[in-house]
Fold Transporter.
Amino acid sequence: MRSQARHAIILAGAAVVGLAVIAFAQGQPPAAVQPEPHGVFGALLNYLHKQPFILLFLVVAAGFALGEVKVKGVGMGSTAATLLLALVVSFWAFHSYKIQYALPEFTSTVFFNLFIFAIGMKVGPQFLGGIHREGKHLILLALLVPLLSSALVYASRFVTTLAPGLLAGILSGANTATPGFGAAQAALASGAAKLSPEHAKLATDNLTTSYAFLYCISMVAFTVMMSFLPRMFGRDAVADGKAMEKELSGEDSAPLPGTADAFIRGYMPLDLRVFRVENPALEGRTVADLDHAHPRVAVERVYHDGKVYNPPPDLVLHRGDEVAMLGPVSLLLAGGPHIGPEVDDSKLRNVKFDTVEFIVQNKEVVGKTLGELAQHMGQGIYLNAIFRAGDQLPVSRDRTVNKGDVLRITGSARRVAGLKQVLGPAVKPSLSTDIITLGLGLAAGALLGAITIPLFGIQFSLGSAVGLLVVSIGLSILRTHNPAFGGPFPESARQLLEDLGLNVFIAILGLNAGPGVQHAIEQGLLGPTLIIGSIAAFVPPLVGWVVGQYVFKMNTAVLMGAIAGARCNSAGMRAAQEASKSIVPAIGYPVTFAISNLLLTLICYLFALMG
């Protein structure tokens, strides 16, 4: 058995045993009108009903563990596994023990919004390049998928008789289009459908049941399908994702300021070497003399008379002293023998390196070339890259520095610290997150998404997902121009928001869905709803994929995000990221998501009017 499978089984077993012990330790509650569920599992599920916090995060943890399990190298991923597990637990509890989980919808909204904001904060710099490259294709796919899905649902009226409300419910649920469901509800509530009170009530019930049932089924199945789709068509999503990243950023480009990888240095042509002074010509010479003899190599520390110095320029060197020198490896190898033998075990090796981004503000620096700056302050520092208005510029001695340029510099902590007064504000890697920016960004995105525009008698809005994407993408693009804008937003914190946000949202969705699934089965809606909904949910994305791959020749990772957006499926987009091991699917998602949501909202409203 694979180690991942063993870990998942051990985790699930430990959780069940532990919660069973806790449940029985609580004792029997007082008698109630509704009899207590019987048996070990009944008591366990009932205890979790009373402790929704434990239930929620137990499902999230187990979903992540199950998502790691792979069969022949293929797994569901954490998102699909979490939703499937939550659905199973919810349906089991309601069907067998009449236990109905009802976790607050507000909680799911909070975590979903955190997920969407985190996606935008990373994809922003690549988004504009992706739109420029694939914009026309994204728009066409955003029209093709929802229109084809709508046509298939409408055509089902000529094959079978659908109860009132099912037309809009199937379309909105199959496409996980919550705004479409809301528009259909509004149409039925307004009386515009011209139904009798009895039929209006039946239509509303059917709309809600079919939407909830298909939403969950479609979410799970589509999320799993996104993991397999590239392989079905012979494409390598991982390779294509990496290729697109290189194409958008450039093969040898440095990460832009304010992005997740800004302070990941990678290969650096610098090293710290320690040499013992044995050359008689250096006896009685100063550190300044040694610096002058090796202009691109800096003396960082000196071990002299039993003490370690951050050496002043006038410190006199003697034979037997040790000097720690920082510079390009080639110069250290060439200059070292002129000093003496290299020392492997030395007290001088613990020199801390910093990579810092400086935003040029000092008037005395503006207008000078990099070569001129290097003469005055280049000793012991290395210029990684220079950026202007969010674009990387080639480094050359003749490159003129403008106000607002960002210089990414690596060097010893003491030398880098001295540059702040010379260049301007410094931005260093940080483990803290600017909560003010996070809070204001979330509020602004939700506000943008809540703005309503009358359209054909419907109050249409972008929705919080699109609003938050727009704000977070804009914020991340601004940070490439000025990395100090918005304060620190480390990648570890952003990744936590992304992973936890979506999976908590998905878990709540699944845990609340049990009664809806049961109701669909009891009302006999399961068969026609499932058949029509499955056709409407999966045929259009497959057609869209064929068009995107063979007609538009789109990059696989971008196409995955575009199909997920056209299906209004955020979990599918996350599954695409997991499958491609890349952020690239998020490039194709926002445009198709916004257009598809608009179309489905209008069409669901019209379907509801048909009764």
In short: The CA atoms of residues 286 and 314 lie 5 Å apart. The chain has three domains: 40-246+434-609, 279-340, 353-427. The domain at 353-427 is CATH 3.30.70.1450 (Alpha-Beta Plaits).
